[in-house]
């Protein structure tokens, strides 16, 4: 049976996610922007937190970890390469490392770019991937530490996952990301439709994440840098894909 997923708004525009295995009762949280909303959902669901999964070291993803660990006794998992700037890790992880929530095994994917030590968590049986600030809904994270080529390579790893995979990213930036995407592909019918759907959700106060990878492939410009039409749109018809990605990211930084 697939893991049960709960999306939890935190801080001003962050998200944490709970995943729960019904048979074993094990429950994990992915990133802890703040402990309070997560504890409230755990209490409401009557779930016991067993694992805390960390994607990267930024404060708005880890500042509630120590409080949550103290309240629940959950073990903390994160990137071995970033252990020096993460809360104390009970299980350091490298790429392709595997661990289980209940009977389902997760795979660790290294996705440097936003930060050098950023990782994602893929649960293939439940068709979930937790990408935080690497692949985001309609966009990708700013390159605070990595290079455009690193981020492009990271996104290619995620783009290769099954298209029905649900992408669980870390922020409510979707509307702004899609407004930017429309400057590059104003006639993309799927992008136009998605932008309207997102506007309707936000007007109702609803999250716009998670989202199917197939929708990202159809509308997210950072996953479309290989397309001749997009290369032409940014004035680089003969450039390699990573160079086009870098130009798109640079334009978004100024948007």
List the helices and strands and how they pair.
Elements: E1 4-10, E2 14-20, E3 26-30, H1 35-45, E4 48-53, H2 59-62, H3 65-72, E5 75-79, E6 91-93, E7 98-101, E8 104-110, E9 119-123, E10 128-132, E11 135-136, E12 139-140, H4 148-159, E13 166-169, H5 174-184, H6 189-203, E14 211-212, H7 213-219, H8 228-233, H9 241-253
Parallel strand pairs: 3-4, 4-5, 5-6, 10-13
Antiparallel strand pairs: 1-2, 2-3, 7-8, 8-9, 9-10, 11-12, 13-14
Helix pairs in contact: 4-9, 5-6
In short:
This protein is an alpha/beta fold.
| Series of H and E elements | EEEHEHHEEEEEEEEHEHHEHHH
> Please, what is the CATH homologous superfamily?
Ribonuclease Z/Hydroxyacylglutathione hydrolase-like
The global form is globular
Number of helices: 9
Query: Can you tell me the CATH class?
Result: Alpha Beta
Average pLDDT number: 97
What do we call the CATH topology?
A: Metallo-beta-lactamase, Chain A
Structural class: alpha/beta
Q: Into which percent range does the helicity of residues fall?
A: 25-40%
CATH architecture assignment name: 4-Layer Sandwich
Structural domains: how many: 1
For the report, how would you describe the main beta sheet? 6 strands, mixed
Radius of gyration: 18 Å
Question: How are the strands of the biggest sheet laid out side by side?
Answer: 1-2-3-4-5-6
Content of β-strand: 25-35%
* Strand tally: 14
Structure description:
The chain has a single domain, classed as Ribonuclease Z/Hydroxyacylglutathione hydrolase-like (Metallo-beta-lactamase, Chain A). The chain is built from nine helices and 14 strands. The radius of gyration is 18 Å and the shape is globular. Helix content is 34%, strand content 25%. The strands form three sheets. The chain has a six-stranded mixed β-sheet with strand order 1-2-3-4-5-6. The chain has a six-stranded mixed β-sheet with strand order 7-8-9-10-13-14. Strands 11-12 form a two-stranded antiparallel sheet. The protein is of the alpha/beta class.
């Amino acid at each position: 049976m697939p893991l049960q997923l709960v999306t939890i708004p935190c801080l001003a525009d962050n998200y944490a996610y709970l995943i729960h295995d019904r048979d074993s009762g094990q429950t994990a949280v992915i990133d802890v922007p703040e402990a309070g909303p997560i504890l409230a959902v755990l209490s409401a669901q009557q779930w016991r937190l067993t694992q805390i999964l960390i994607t990267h070291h930024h404060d708005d993803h880890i500042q509630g970890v120590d409080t949550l660990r103290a309240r629940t006794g959950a073990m903390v998992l994160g990137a071995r390469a970033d252990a020096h700037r993460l809360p104390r890790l009970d299980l350091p992880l490298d790429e392709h490392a595997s661990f289980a929530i209940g009977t389902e095994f997760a795979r660790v994917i290294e996705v440097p770019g936003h930060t050098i030590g950023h990782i994602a968590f893929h649960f293939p049986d439940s068709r979930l991937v937790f990408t935080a600030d690497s692949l985001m809904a309609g966009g990708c994270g700013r390159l605070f530490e990595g290079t455009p080529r690193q981020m492009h390579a990271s996104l290619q790893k995620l783009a290769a996952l099954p298209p029905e995979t649900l992408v669980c990213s870390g922020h409510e930036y979707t509307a702004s990301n899609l407004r930017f995407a429309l400057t590059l592909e104003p006639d993309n019918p799927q992008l136009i439709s998605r932008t309207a759907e997102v506007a309707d959700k936000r007007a109702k106060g609803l999250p716009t994440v998670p989202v199917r990878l197939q929708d990202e492939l159809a509308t997210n410009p950072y996953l479309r840098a290989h397309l001749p039409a997009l290369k032409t749109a940014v004035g680089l018809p003969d450039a390699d894909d990573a160079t086009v990605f870098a130009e798109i990211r640079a334009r978004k930084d100024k948007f």
